[in-house]
Amino acid sequence: MRHISVIGSGTMGNGIAHVFAQQGFDVALVDISEEALRKGVSTIAKNLDRQVLKSILTESDKLATLARIRTATSLEEGVRDADLVVEAATENSDLKLRIFGQLDDACPPQCILASNTSSISITRIAAATGRPDKVIGMHFMNPVPVMKLVEVINGYATASDVTERIVELSRHLGKTPCVVQDYPGFVANRILMPMINEAIRTLHEGVADVAAIDTVMKLGMSHPMGPLQLADFIGLDVCLAILQVLQEGFGQPAYAPCPLLVNMVRAGRLGVKSGEGFYRYVPGSKEATPVEFR
Ligand code: CAA
Description:
This protein is α/β, with parallel strands linked by helices. 47% of the residues lie in helices and 16% in strands. It has helices spanning 11-22, 34-53, 59-67, 75-79, 93-106, 122-126, 160-172, 188-204, 210-221, 227-234, 236-250, 259-266; strands at residues 3-7, 26-30, 69-72, 84-87, 112-115, 135-140, 149-154, 176-181, 279-281, 288-290. Helix 8 packs across helix 10 and helix 8 crosses helix 11. It binds acetoacetyl-coenzyme A.
């Protein structure tokens, strides 16, 4: 594989483009607007600067990485010569089904189509194409250049040689792939989201405040972020959507999203991206002040 197309230049998409380009692949980054693409590429440049500052990369590695990334606002133009497409658009099932239908029409017949979805069924996405054997999940973690895991998700019809190629490719990117089957939340979010939901319930019931809950999990379990801070980092709307997939998929009340989470999303308190969630954030600073809940 040589030509990789990444659909979506948001946090996950630009991180995925970054790691592929850094490992020498030619990357086409595709999004609907020039403005989104400019923002995506400037985030990649900023994150490459961090790596230069830490002596992980040289300045010339950085420039060569950026030179391997081209941008496109036309999907057809961006995927024409792709060996692999990694879709990292918004987590909306209708949108993803539509994109995969378009990819199926526009990509070369041998091209593998991967989705970075955090919880939408790969089997369902694959069924929107005429090549379900070549559709697979490639779930990267945020921040992509730092986190070592790629959760590789087999859809019902994914061919075993496609899984093997994606596993090998993930290792080539310096990541550790884990192959899992296509059931609600896969493995990462089936385990992570109930923990986050329980932390929100613990807060909602007044058992402890935001700082105490996060400190218990950081110092007691050696997590780099407490569950409430991590929920803010992921986005509360994303957490809610994943919990809804788990609730619907398993049909058990244990997965019901905490009413506090539902209310916060309705109120537009989405975490870091909206400036407030369980913490208040100051743009451009690492400062985070816990919010007091009544
Ligand atoms: N690109 C490149 N490097 C980055 C980076 C980025 N986007 N973000 C951070 N870094 C680097 C920093 O340069 C720094 O490098 P050194 O260790 O060499 O100094 C390192 O990562 C740590 O960064 P910071 O010092 O800025 O901050 P930190 O120590 O607080 O770590 C963190 C930040 C890596 C995000 C850490 O808090 C962490 O691991 N948090 C948990 C993240 C997590 O759980 N992610 C998974 C979320 S779930 C998901 O993504 C999937 C889903 O489906 C919901």
